[in-house]
Each structure stands twice: as structure tokens, then as C-alpha cells.
Queue: 4 jobs
Job 1
Amino acid sequence: ARPLGVDGASLRPVAEAALALGDAGRHAARIFFESWFDPLEVVPASGGGFVTGYYEPEVDGAVTRSPAFPGPLHAPPADLVEIADTDDRSNLDLALTWARRHPGGGLSEHPDRAAIMAGALGPDAPAVAFVRDWIEAFFIHVQGSARIRLAGGGVRRVTFAAKSGHPYFAVARVLVERGLMTAAQATADVLRSYLEQHPEDVAAILLRNRSYIFFREAPVSDSALGPVAAAGVALTPGRSLAVDRHLHTFHLPVFVSADLGDPEPFRRLMIAQDTGSAIVGPARGDLFCGSGDDAWRRAARIRHPASFILLRPRSHPRGA
């Protein structure tokens, strides 16, 4: 079990009871959760909880590189592996989480974002799609998925497959460091606007985040659902939550409370189904807002304090 999670097997009787319940109404669903779970508030050792938003971009692109679509969304190299606890990492930076595995079994650091953007993977490195530019590709990296509207017709959905293994760095901090804005003002939409208005500054800013994301095709039959997430299921807008996977168990219900600047406070039961490089800590969450431009505008503005209540499954329903 994760430090704040549960053994996945303990969710089995709850899942079986939920399936037996069928398509219940709101009242029956509430009784179910109150009967089968115990609430546990997450209280960080220091600071408070924090929530952001993410979404699935919908962008134009192509399956082959062209002057209109030069920015690659690379597929993972064959030698890229996630570092296991049993691997000898004596010659690696302790911060690395992925690396190159050599034929003899040894590991070495994979090229980072700067090296890859400079051509370290070679001109023929496999890619699942090509998009408008490195800015477009970067924001897809941050979100971990995308719907690519192909120039020849159709849509290709891509999702996270691997990463270079370098620590994530929130590049909006560069604008804060330069005194161009405060941390509260440095939202994703403000960052993107700055990059598009200052093309001469794009490389210097993007390269501060050494982490580089690789993708795979991931078709989803229901277009109303989001991409396939780390938990192996398609995300549900407004109900799926990304958490720190080193601390929490996927599929666990989490009640999130936050003031997101709307007329009504955000109070919602969500399911932990995803993770992300920037989602670190016990009281840190990322709300999946959906796909496309409307979801982007919503997600880009979510940077708010929040509280989290984990629902720990019971072996038997309360009162049984």
C-alpha cells in the first residue's frame, strides 16, 4: 500500500458492491459511500493543500513532419526504462527516475529537453504526431495527453508513455524570478501568452524544464471521456483527480474542497485516477477539466488552496 493509500485488494469488496448497486440515483450513491468508507482528512506536516487544473488539448497536427507541423511528439526510445529499486544507480543522479538501459544491463542518463530539442534523438526518431511548434508540444507535455486533429482527416489521441527522468521544473517560475509577475499571476494561460509574444525567449524558458515527455497512441471509443490515464482508465471531466502516485492509491475516492473563484465553492467527490510530475505531496491534486479550449480556459486559472478528505474503504459496510 502507498503511505496514504490502501492495498488495492481492499477496494475489491467495495467495487463488487458498487457493481451490484447498478445505476443508482444521487441519494443511493451517497448512502453507499457513507456506508462503505471512512473519511480521513489529509493534514500536511507543513503548509496547506493546493489544487490546480489540467485538460486534454485539442490541436491541429499531422502524422508526418512538414513546414506547417514541425514539432514532434516523440514515441519513447527502445532503450528508455523506468529505474527500478533493484537497479544499480551508483553512476546516476539520485533525482533521475528514468534512464537509458544498455545491452549489458547498465544505466546511463537519458538526454534532457535541451539535448533533444537540439537533435540528440536524431532526425528520424519515431513520433506519434507533429504539431505547430515547440510551444504547442510543450503544453501537451505538461498536460500529458492530446487530441490531434490530423491534416488528412480524423483524430489521433495520444497519452503519456515515458519521460526522460529529469526533475520537473515549472517554467512559469522564470517569469516570477525576472520580476515580470507574481506567483499568483503566473498561470498557464499567462505563460503561454508570454511565450507566443516573445519567440526569442522560448528556448531559454522551456529548457529550464529538463523533463521531456514521450507519447503513445491511446484510442478512446467514447469521445465524451478524456484520455487514458495512469490508472489505465479514461478520465471523466470534473470527476477524475491526479495525485502523487508515490503516496496515494489509484481509484480511491477523494473529497476535494476549494474556493476556485466561482459563485459557489467547489465541493466534490472525485476519484484518484492519474498522476503528474508536478503533483507532489500528500495534499496536492490536479482536477481534470475536460478537453478542448473551454477546458483549457478553466484549467489554466485553477491555482488555489484546497483541502482533501480520503475515503478509506471498509471491509464491510457500516452497520453490517
Note: The first helix runs from residue 12 to 21.
Job 2
Amino acid sequence: MSFLLSILLPFFVERYTHQQRVQIVQLYYENQRSVKDVFRKLRPTYGPHNRPSESTICKITEKFKGAATCWDVPSSGRPCTARSVENIAALTESVAEDRDNTLPSTANIIAPY
């Protein structure tokens, strides 16, 4: 994996859907609040390498405990515009065209001076 791709990969990772988060919270409470049991029970659904990590399960359940909802709660302040569909498409196209791009040149595609 190239260095540039390893830096950009977190931006391409999809968030968990509402249904997936509900499933995680349900399993959490069905298994007497055991994160390890939830992690094990998600293996048939997601496979051994694509399932949420234990820390992700903790974050989702803590968010549910705090807000009592699995929906994303809108944050206050200015909305983030860096992770838009257009920017992700531009990055994907740029990396596909030239894998030897440097990070500054790739960043220049998204936010030209």
C-alpha cells in the first residue's frame, strides 16, 4: 500500500448505517453489556476482518447511552465540508490516475490556493 493511500484511506471509510448501529446496541444489551461478546457475535455478519473493532462498539454504545438514540446528533458550529462526495470522488480519481502523487499535490486538487 502506498504511503499516500495509507494517509487517505481513513477518508474513504464509510460510517456505519443506522441499522448497523441499532444491531450493535441491541447485541450489547442482549449480551449483558459485554463488548467482547458483541465483537464475537458480529463475525458471521461482517466476517473476521470487516467487523467493527471493540473500541468502535464502545463508542457506539456510549453514544447511545448519552443521547438515547442511534441517529447522528447534529453538532453545533460550522459544518465540515472537507468530506463531501465530490471531494472523495476527486481523490479517488486522482489516486487512480497517478499513484505517485505527493500529498501536497493531492491536497491541492481539493482545496486549490
Note: The longest helix spans residues 54-67.
Job 3
Amino acid sequence: MANLFMMCVILAYENVAFAFYEAWIQAELCMGSASEHTGEIPIPQAHYDDRRLVPKFLKYVANCLILDQLSLLRRVNYFTMLIDECTSRSIVSCAAIYICFQHPDTFESSVIFFGLFKLHGGSGKLLYRSVVSWLALLGIEPTRRLMFFISDGASAMRSVRTGLGKRLRDSFCEAMVMIHCVCHRLPLGSAECFAMFPECIAIDKILTKSYGFFKKSHAQRDNFREMTDEFDIKYKLPKRFHKVRWLSRGQSVERLIELLVPFVAYLRSVDENFVKTFENFSTLFILFAVADLLVVLNVLSSRMQSTKWPFSNLSVFLDEAFDSINEMFVTPALDLSDPEQRAKYGGKYIKLLLGTIAKSENGSYYDDIRLNFDKSEDECQHRVMEIAIMLIMCIKDRFPDIEILEALCVFDPARLPDSLETIEKDNYGKEAMHVIFEHYGDVIGVETLAELMEQWIKLRKIVFCTYRNVDIFTFVRRFHHAFTHQATGAPDPKYTYMLLLLELCNIIVMANAHTERGFAHLNDIWTHQRGRLAVRTINDVMVTKFLGPTLGGENEALRALCISAARHWGTQRGPQICREPVVMHQPLPEFAEDSEICEDLEDEMLVGSSSSDEDEDPLGLETVIVDGDEYASDDSE
């Protein structure tokens, strides 16, 4: 994760950043292919305007991290690939890749930063070529090992016909599961739902227009500051609204409600037509109800971003969110004319609206919004119920793979029944084993469901008697240690299939949390750190947050050396912008010589070169990905 942070911050230098990043990657490849590590990485020959573009501390990064990571990754049985693309008008497009796997010695789930690809086009085909070429260069064989592919909802990633995931599945493992990032699914589901209702579309326009009032005018911001002071409200501005960026819609609605009173008062002197929108009772009712719905979804999204949470809790989290929505707006047949029932309706925001109206004598809101009761409360209540029901349905449709994920979570000790008698029943876990056999039977080598059930019957009793009170992460680690030969690493024949399935279960559990955090940090940095940053700012960020606690691990001397190198680099004049194309001259590693994919890669390492045929770029360097959640069609479902 720290590596991703570091690379994203460095990317503020745009083309220069990619120049020495490519040099760093080439250094990693040199080291990864070397039979003996001498401690010194040969930096490839490259043409730069300033040789300081390759600072010394990058060598230490590669020395202490990359060699061990690549050697481990070549030994694992299965791994998960996580990928996210990021775009900005001020920074060149790229895609970041993580690899999740189970450590072959400690059985701990590990996540490594795998690469950062420069992109100049938008097709799954070019993305596929880029990823496959990178795997080949690093000497990693993905056939029947790449079990999970996790990304956002971009069509270039998840298209059922031409997406990167579909191509990886067809090429390497037909049982590979394509997992859509769960924190991307929630806003996509809500956006799909709200697009069906004109009232919600109107709210989206209100959010966009409210943000636009203060976007480019300092005078309007100053005037609004005076208005907030009059109402004794802390000065803030409406937040920018994004339809599919997770948490964005909910935060925008909550901020607008928080500033509603001074904002309406301010609009009276700026845009009288827009003020009328806030005077419609139906608009306010839907706005406050949608705020309550989005609070539930944002809480759900935040819970899914915890550091460690098993997929066994996925359905639990979803059910709790759906129950909360039903309790607020669907299940109760409340009469809003009754004060007692009125107080039970909705969440905190709709209660605020209805409570304020009930206390007002002239039907006004905060004595400043002259309400126009265009619709009755019963009509608005019925409409909100329709929105809530549709929202639940749209979110459920976004989790088509929950059957497979839930089946793997049958290993979670926390899900076991309370009694051993229930455990010993033949039908316990049979449905999950059937799903696992259908999807992974060929991969793990089991020929019949009976063979899998035979091991499962033994395993579930052991779990109940020995590992019942531990979390799934501890259980997987301890079980592997107990039932594998520590010298050879060979699994116990009695639990061969179960050990393989536990590996899959463990990497998918860990992959999700890192996916959300990786995507979130990548997008946040791109949003808030656009343009070029001062050299000192970048230096401070890298030293205090990334290099210090990351490099060298427990080796204090190495860590101090890394920090010293970083500080030295930060005090220099800083790299100059490369105006000429950066040309890499690096021979292919020995392990890739016989690879059909890499036959012509040496001639294609011209980073600044252009190709007449877009489809003939094996490295995918001419690929541009637009954030599919917003711009590309999402036909993967």
C-alpha cells in the first residue's frame, strides 16, 4: 500500500515521474531474473535530461522488497489480481495492479504492489496484452493459478464479451471469479435506482447546480460566508456530486441539508427561480428521505472497508442495511397525521423535516422557506416507499457472485452451529460444497462431490472441536500448519482438497479490504493532488508516511539509509521535465526467452514510440481507460 502511495505522489511530476518509474521497474526486472543477488541493481541505460531522475533510494526499495515478493509469488498455488484505472485531466492515465496471495511458508495473506501501467487507449484487448506481457516478464505463470480478478465496473475490465477479466478467464483459468469492487457496487446500484425516478433526477440536478454556484466565483463564496455567519452556521460549501463515486452522493446530500437555510436565503438575491425548487414540499420530502437512505448505504460501505472482514459477513451486512431501509420507509404503514406515528417514520433527516413542519404555525420551514405543498404527505410517503424498494432490488442485482463467496465462507468458524449434533448431520454444508464442486472441482482436482464431502465431514468436526472460537484468518493459518508437512510443504492426503480450498478462501477474504483501500487512496490522491507539487512537499510526504515505516522492515539501519537518501533527493533542485521520448534499452530476462508472448517485447520497449496499428501494441502502452463507472457502459452484470 505504501508503494502505491509513493508512486501516486510521485506521479504529480507527470511525464518525468514515469521516466524514473520505468527505470525502477526495469531495475526490478533485472534483479528478479538474476540467479544470484549481489546487492547492487544495474540501472538500465536510458536517456534523461537529468541523471538525478533515478534517485538512490529507489535501489533500496527494489533491494528490500521486489526480490522477495517475486520469488514468493512464483511459489504460490493461487493468487488474486486487483486492478484499478485512474484518470485526470492534469495527469497522464495509468492503471495500478495489486497481487494478493497466501504466503507459502507462513500461510499469511499477503498483498504486494505489482505495477503501475501507463495507458493511452481504452480496450480490454490492449489491457489484456499489457497484463500478460508483464506477467511473462516477471516470470509468473498464471495458468490455473489466477483464481480471482477484482476491479471496478468499467466495461474494459468486466465486459462479458471483450473485457480484461473475460480474456484472463478464457486464457488461464475458466473457474476464475470476476469480483466487482463492493464499494463501487453500492453507488452504481443507487445511481441505477435513482435514474428511474424523476424526483431523484431533479435532486441530482440540484446537487450539481448548488456546487456550481461557488465553483469559480470568490465573490459569491464571500457573500455566502456572510450569510452563514448571520445564521450562526459554520461556513462550508456544497460538495461536488458524483453519481458513482462511493460515498459522494450521500456526503453531497448531507452537506446540502446542513446548509439549506443559509443557502436558500442566499439564493433569494441571486436566483429566484432556483429558490422555488426548494419551496416545493415534495422536493424537500424526497431530498430528506434520500439522505436517510444514503446514510444507510454509506455506513454499509464504511463497514466493508474495514481492515479485515470475512466475506461471511457480506450477506449479514447487506441484510442489516436492507432491514434498516425497510424499517424506515417500507414496512410500517404509518399515519403521518398521528403525531406518535409521525415520530417513528424515516431516519434522522426526514424526522427533522416533518418535526419542523409540525411545530410551525404557518407551514414554513425554519421561517425562511415558504413551502408550496404541491403534493400531500401521503403521496410523498408512497413515492419514497417505491424508491426504497427499488433501491434494495438494484443493490441485490449488483451481487450476482454472492453464492460463490458465501460458499467459500462455510469454512468460517464463526458460522458454525452451536451443537455438535447439528454439525454431524450429513446435510450441513452440503449446499456450499455443491457450489464449490461445480466451480472449483476441476481446479483442485476432485473428481466427485462424494470425495469433497468426505473431507468436509471430517473437517467440520475438527473445526468445531478445535478452532471454533478463532477468526477465519487464524483458523486458516493454524489448519495449514497442522495438516501440511513442514519440511516439504506437502498437504495431508486426507485434506488435500480442503487445504487448497482454504487457500482460495484466505486470499479472497483479504483481497476485498485491500481492494477498497487501494482504490480509495488512488482516487483520492488523484482528486486532491492534481498538478505539480513542490519538491519539498513530496519529500515530506514520502519520508513521513511512506519510506520511513515501510522500507527496510525491521532493519533500522536500512530504513535510516532509505530516509537519508530520500531527504537528500528532496533537497536537490528537483528533476527537470523530459521533453524528448524516454527510450529503454533492456534485454529480456532469461526466463522469458522461450515465452511466445515475449518474443517481440524487446523491440517494443520504446515508451515514447507510437504505433500505426493500435491492436499491435503488445505492452498495451497505447491504452487509455476512462473511469468506466462514469463514462463506459457497465454490461458485465
Note: The first strand starts at residue 45 and ends at 46.
Job 4
Amino acid sequence: MSGAQQFSKRTVFWARASFVTAGCALIGLGTFLETFALSVVHLFGYALQIFGAMVLGFGAFARGTICAELFLRSLNRLAR
């Protein structure tokens, strides 16, 4: 396995892990604040949940983009 392929696999792994972890942490913190906090902090919990969902969505988009790029690279290699 070449260095570029190994780097690409690491990039895909870390992109997935970091976005999923961050999104889940934000949603979890938002749910905690929404459930146990009062008024203004309660609304802040909602905002964190929405932001966490956006981070998860961006992570899925980024992961899909990276995977598509790797797929196209492998097709180019096969075509040579």
C-alpha cells in the first residue's frame, strides 16, 4: 500500500471519527441542558442540538466527498 493510499484511509477515518464524536457530544450536551436547565439555558440546549445535527450532517457530507475522491482515484488507477 502506497503512502498516499495510507494517508487517505487515515483522513477518512479521522474525518468520520471527529465529526461524529463532535456532533454526538453537542447533541448530548444540548439534550442535557434542555432537560435539566431553566429558561434561557433551556433554549441554549435546543441551539446546541441543532448545531450538533448540522455537524453530523457536515461530517456525512465530508466523509462522502472524501470517499468519492478515493473511489475516483482508484478508477483512474485502473484505467491506466
Note: Residues 39-79 form the longest helix (41 residues).
